[in-house]
Fold this sequence. Notes:
NADP(+) binds at residues 131, 153, 179. The chain has helices spanning 26-33, 61-67, 87-94, 105-111, 113-121, 142-147, 157-169, 177-183, 249-258, 270-278, and strands at 3-8, 11-17, 44-49, 72-77, 98-101, 125-132, 137-140, 172-175, 198-202, 221-225, 238-241, 263-268, 284-289, 297-299, 306-313, 316-322. By secondary structure, it is α/β, with parallel strands linked by helices. The protein has a nine-stranded mixed β-sheet, with helices on both faces. Strands 2-1-3-4-5 form a five-stranded mixed β-sheet. A two-stranded antiparallel ribbon has the order 7-14.
Amino acid sequence: MVGCVIVHNNKIIGEGFTDPYGGPHAEVNAIRSVKDKTLLKEATLYVTLEPCSHYGKTPPCADLIAKHKLKEVFIGLQDPHDKVAGKGIKKLQAAGCEVTVGILENACRAHHKRFLTYMEKKRPYIILKWAASDDGFLAPDAAKRSDNPEPFWITNAHSKQLVHQWRSQEQAILVGTNTVLEDNPSLTTRNWVGKSPVRVILDRDLKLDQRFHVLDASVKTIVLTEVTNGKKYIKGVDYALVDFSKPLAQQICNALYRHNINSVIVEGGSRTLQTFIDENLWDEARAFKGSVRFKNGLPAPKHQGILQKRTQILTDTLSIYIND
């Protein structure tokens, strides 16, 4: 969401952020929040992203700013969208506004990283997430799994809740076939108040059926497959074709881009995570380390990310890496 504040004589007189899709933009909400509109012509507006200049779901914000004759506008980033891309800045300048671009640019880029990745790289912002045992395994060996088919929880309840918060913040969540076969996850947001992400499932041969939670059509779901026979498709589920004999991560990115997905959490399994790492198609990795020890089993992914932050969550350690 874009953020905006309006300042008069060093005092904030208005502020706003973008409403959900189709609602008013940040600048509109900020201007609406100003009680004395006569102050606007002597005020300064600060906004994280260039005001729009075209009619979409809402009228152009640049026109509204010009209408109220704000004297000065500071913009964090020029909007890379081809419908804006400097046109909003030119509209403001033509209306007599003094415009400065690039204020706190790095902070604004970090704030808008999902949108910018989608627009500039033509793919979603990709977050890899996994939990490993204290001795570096995602799961115990197959023999132990066959004795007890229930999921082996590595992290504590607080970490689990944090993961559900993350799900509410991203547009999609992705897993491979084996993760569904072994754990039958729902991939929904349950331990946090928020919207469930779009579920993206890799299922080359359509091994999964409606007995699995991810295909219950309760949440928008996209299945990536090689099966072209539409008679095998489940009603209420979207399907997209990819070639599993070729590098997969870029194909996944292309398919999600076509579905207008601008961020995705990749939750597993190991092969799926490593696919994104090997193709260098990831932006952030969030790795939990629990206190349990498996001694042997499925190794955690290997990556070359730069450690950005490390946090202790009771018995768990959360490390966040960025792909620089």
